[in-house]
Design a protein that fits this description.
Blueprint lengths: L10 E2 L17 E2 L25 H10 L30 E7 L2 E6 L2 E5 L29 E3 L10 H4 L8 E4 L3 H5 L6 E4 L3 E7 L2 E8 L19 E5 L5 E4 L8 H8 L5 E5 L6 H4 L6 H11 L3 E5 L13 H12 L15 E4 L5
Parallel strand pairs: 5-6, 6-7, 7-8, 12-13, 13-14
Antiparallel strand pairs: 1-2, 3-4, 3-15, 4-5, 9-10, 10-11, 11-12
Helix pairs in contact: 4-6, 6-7
């Protein structure tokens, strides 16, 4: 079967406001938006998209032998110190954008006049993981009507069925290739699955808002028999006028960041994961550590970075506060402007203001 990423797609002009970094070749034209909700056929497996081999039996045995599955007990004393400032999303004016961190990879984006959820997980507990250590930062009843949801991949801490059940079934869902059947089985009627470098749109008050699915260094698995049966990736969301937000989802560090920055110049805000990275011998291929996230920010050429994927579920062995401490130190070591690091507490919000406004 032909991989749809390799098929030629119609192209469209780049949105107004997109910029190329000095000395860099002009980016390729973006693919024309695909119809929402179309039925598509995919390869049986996306394992050929992996950028690193998945851990085998020996790696799992070593992990169990070392006992480094969760932070040491004495480090759990840091949990009460995790920053938490719950509140509703801000009201934004025409042409403005804002982000609210609900926790983990769940964000409420206000962009292009739309309200978009990223990997929404409002559940207290997910399969195979201890309960969340900070509550959800935004009460469900405080959310405005949801105009779209983006899903990065099918792992339980990113695709949460109980949370999705709270949404109206006509809510537009944008998901990786191979995941639409799962959503349609739960009676969602507007499901668009995309391959890497493909896009679709949602109408907004000032024009269509574009959703591009982009690569990530990760994998997928939800049951014992579906390893890499659906794709994984991040999302670039572009509003009319060119305001652009990149949501990385779950990813390790690698060459895709520079390619994303090349194809989508002028990213205003990058939402990048900084947690669940220890032990490195096991997790380096699929989870960036704080220093790698700062490096990825530079590769992307983004204006601001919001760290995420920490302070919510204790998925690995690093102490709870260590990701924040290390990302701040790496940011300072890179001599980046402090105001461009949006190290928000869970529940906090920030309004995006472009330098030319």
């Amino acid at each position: 079967m032909t991989d749809q990423a390799d098929q030629a797609q119609p192209t469209e002009r780049r949105p107004a406001g997109a910029r190329t970094r000095p000395g860099q070749a002009a980016p390729p034209s973006l693919a024309a938006p695909r119809p929402r909700g179309e039925l598509r056929t995919w390869p049986r497996s996306f394992a050929h998209r992996l950028t690193s081999p998945l851990p085998g039996v020996r790696a799992i045995a070593r992990l169990a032998r070392e006992g480094r599955l969760r932070p040491p007990v004495d480090a759990l004393r840091q949990i009460p110190e995790l920053p938490f400032e719950p509140g509703p999303p801000p009201v934004v004016g025409p042409g403005e954008a804002a982000v609210t961190w609900a926790g983990h990879a769940s964000c409420v984006l206000r962009v292009g006049g739309l309200t978009v959820l990223t990997d929404p997980v409002w559940s207290r507990r997910i399969l195979g993981t201890p309960a969340r250590v900070t509550p959800v930062g935004v009460r469900w009843e405080d959310l405005p009507p949801i105009d779209a949801v983006v899903i990065s991949h099918n792992h339980y801490d990113h695709l949460d069925a109980p949370t999705l059940k709270r949404l109206p079934r006509h809510t537009p869902l944008f998901v990786p290739a191979g995941l639409a059947a799962w959503c349609r089985a739960r009676r969602f009627t507007d499901v668009t699955e995309l391959d890497w470098w493909e896009a679709a749109e949602v109408p907004g008050p000032d024009g269509p808002v574009r959703f591009d699915f982009v690569p990530a260094h990760h994998w997928s698995k939800r049951t014992l028999t579906d390893t890499c049966r659906s794709l994984w990736g991040g999302w670039v969301i572009t509003a009319p006028g060119g305001r652009r937000i990149y949501f990385a989802g779950d990813t390790g560090y690698g060459h895709w960041f520079r390619e994303i920055g090349h194809r989508y110049p002028g990213i205003d805000l990058a939402l990048l994961p900084i947690g669940a990275y220890d032990p490195r011998w096991m997790l380096r291929p699929v989870h960036t550590d704080p220093e790698e996230a700062v490096r990825a920010f530079g590769d992307l050429g983004a204006r601001a970075m919001m760290p995420m994927h920490w302070s919510t579920f204790l998925l690995s062995a690093e102490p709870p506060l260590e990701p924040l401490q290390r990302v701040r130190a790496a940011w300072e070591a890179a001599r980046l402007p402090r105001e461009a690091l949006w190290d928000l507490p869970v529940g906090a919000s920030r309004v995006l203001i472009r330098p030319d406004e």
